[in-house]
Amino acid sequence: MEEKYYLAWLNYVNGVGLKTIEALIRRFGSARNVFFASASELLRSDGINENIIHNILQNRDEERIEAQRIIIEKLGIDILSRNDMEFPCNLRNIYDPPYLLYKIGSIHTDDETAVAIVGARKATPYGKWAAYKLAGDLAKRGITVVSGMAYGIDTAAHRGALDNGGRTIAVLGCGVDICYPKSNYSLMKEIQKNGAVVSEYAIGTPPLPNHFPPRNRIISGMAKGIVVIEANEKSGSLITAEFALEQGREVFAVPGNINSSLSRGTNQLIKDGAKIVTCVEDILEELGMEEVKAIDQQMIELSTHEMEIYHTVKECQPVHMEILSLKTKQSIDNINSIVTILQLKGLVELLPGKILIAR
C-alpha cells in the first residue's frame, strides 16, 4: 500500500499531531515503518509519550487502513505530504507548515500568486459586496482567491471568484469530506471543480472551535497577501492577519463605518500599518502585479432602461431596490423586471434583503 495511506492512518490516530508525525518520520523514515515498528522500538522514540504510543498500537489495523483508502479514493481525495512536489510552495515555506494536506480539486502553479480574503461571518451587505467585488476583480485578472468557506465574507469572496470565471481555494477547519457550514454544499462542489478544497485534518474530523485558529495559518500561508473585510476586535480574521505578518505576507484592510463594531478590527489594522484597500489596484500595486490585466469580458447589449439601472446599481452599490426605484424614478414593478434581465445577463446580483450589487 502507498505511503500516503499510512500517513493518513497516522494522522488519524488520537493525539498524533504535526510535531509527533515529524518526530516519528525522523525516527523511522516513513509512516509505513511506524506502522510495522515494534512496541519496544516505539517506546525508544524521543519526545513521544506512552499514551500516544498506546494509541498507535491500538489502531494498528491494516483493514482499517484499507477501509480508509477506499473512502479516500471514492471521494476523490488526494493526500499531499510536505515533501511532495505538488505541495503548495508558498505553504511549504512558512514557519509551521502542515505535514499533510488533504485536497479535493486541483492546485496549479498559478495559485502561488493567490490573494486571501477573510472577514466577519455576520457580515453587512457592504462587507459582502466588497468581498464579492474584490474577489471578482482578482479573478478577472487570473488571480486565485483563498478563503475559509465560512458564512459572510468568506462565502462572498468564493462566490465572487467563481461568478467571474476564476479559481478559488477553500481551507477548512474540518475534514475535506465534511461541508461546514452545511448550507455551502453547492458552493463547496463548485470550488472543487474550479480550484480546491483543502485541510490538514483527517477525513471525518468535525469542525471543532479549536481547529480554526491553526487553519488560519494555512489560509495566509497559501497567499501572497491577505485582505481583511469587516472584523471585530476579537475576530478570527485578525488571527489570520497575525499569521500573515509572521509569514512575511502583505496585510490589507478595507476601511469601514466607524460606528460599526465590525469595522473596529479592520480600522485598527489600518492604524497599525495595514494597507488600505478601496479597489483591486491597491492590492495589485502593493504586490507588484500592476502588469496583470483584466481578462476581456464579452460585450453585452443593454437597452436604454437596462443601461440606466445597471449604471445606477454600479455607482450606488450596495443599493436597496426601493432606493433604486427612487433614484431612477421607475416603479418597483419595472425595477423588478429589469433587475431580473440583468441577473440573467450576469451583470447584477440580488442579495438577501433586496440589496443589489453589480458584478
Plain-language structure description:
With 359 residues, this protein is an alpha/beta fold. The chain folds into 3 domains: 1-74, 5' to 3' exonuclease, C-terminal subdomain (DNA polymerase, domain 1, Orthogonal Bundle); 109-286, Rossmann fold, CATH 3.40.50.450; 304-358, Winged helix-like DNA-binding domain superfamily/Winged helix DNA-binding domain (Arc Repressor Mutant, subunit A, Orthogonal Bundle). 46% of the residues lie in helices and 14% in strands. The chain contains 17 helices and 12 strands. The strands form 2 sheets. The chain has a 9-stranded mixed sheet, sandwiched between helices. Strands 10-12-11 form a 3-stranded antiparallel sheet. Strand 11 and strand 12 (355-358) form a beta hairpin. Helix 1 crosses helix 6 (62-74) and helix 11 (212-221) packs across helix 12. The longest helix has 16 residues, at 125-140. It is elongated. The chain starts with a helix and ends with a strand. The model is unreliable at 295-299 (pLDDT under 50).
Features:
single chain; 359 residues; alpha/beta; DNA polymerase, domain 1; Rossmann fold; Arc Repressor Mutant, subunit A; 3 domains; 9-stranded mixed β-sheet; 3-stranded antiparallel β-sheet; 12 strands; elongated; RuvA_2-like
